[in-house]
Amino acid sequence: MWPQTLCYDWTLVSSKNTCRLPEEKELDTKWINVKNNADPHSFLKYQWVKHGTCALSHSKLNKYKNELKYFKSTLEIFNSFDVTKILTKAEFHAGGKYFVQDLIKSIESFTGKNCQIDCIFYRQPKEYYLYQVKIYFDKSLKPIDCSKSNKSYSNCSFSKKVFYLKSVPNNPGDL
After folding, report:
1. pLDDT higher than threshold 70 for residue 34
2. Nearest-angstrom CA–CA distance, 53 and 3
3. pLDDT of 104-143, one tens digit each?
4. Which distant-in-sequence residues (6+ apart) come within 8 Å of 66 by Cβ?
5. What is the CA radius of gyration of the chain?
6. Under a CB-based contact definition with an 8 Å cutoff, are residues 104 and 117 in contact?
7. Name one GO biological process term (predicted).
8. What is the distance, to the nearest Å, from the Cα of residue 93 to the centroid of all Cα atoms in its chain?
């Protein structure tokens, strides 16, 4: 539910209405909804309902009292831990193929913590594609290890290179 100072309800945030988060364009480019044919705002709604409202219940996070503050803070974190910039600085460029363990090393080097890298495997053309990189944070918004074993986790192949896409395809057939 949107606070009354912004919008009354998520259904108002649509192409039919003018009610928008000020950061919506930045959110749309940095926090992408990869589900085909989904309402463009369904992903942000899900993130707020699942994570934003949960943040309200923690004393250290309840300063994010509404959607606007929550999403502003997520953009600040995103910009501080921009995985694309981290990988580019380490000479991994979108459009290339890389061993996942090399990607993990570059992210761990930046954050000082282990991470989680998820891939999607497509049977045709029998390749792994980088799907998402997860960096975990504690309630003070400091990076923490994603695994207690002090090892990064990945479902990607460690013996084959992973394709790092330049952009999200319209559908998997575009791969």
Report:
1. no
2. 12
3. 999 999 999 999 999 988 887 888 999 889 898 887 888 8
4. 2, 3, 5, 6
5. 18
6. yes
7. RNA catabolic process
8. 18
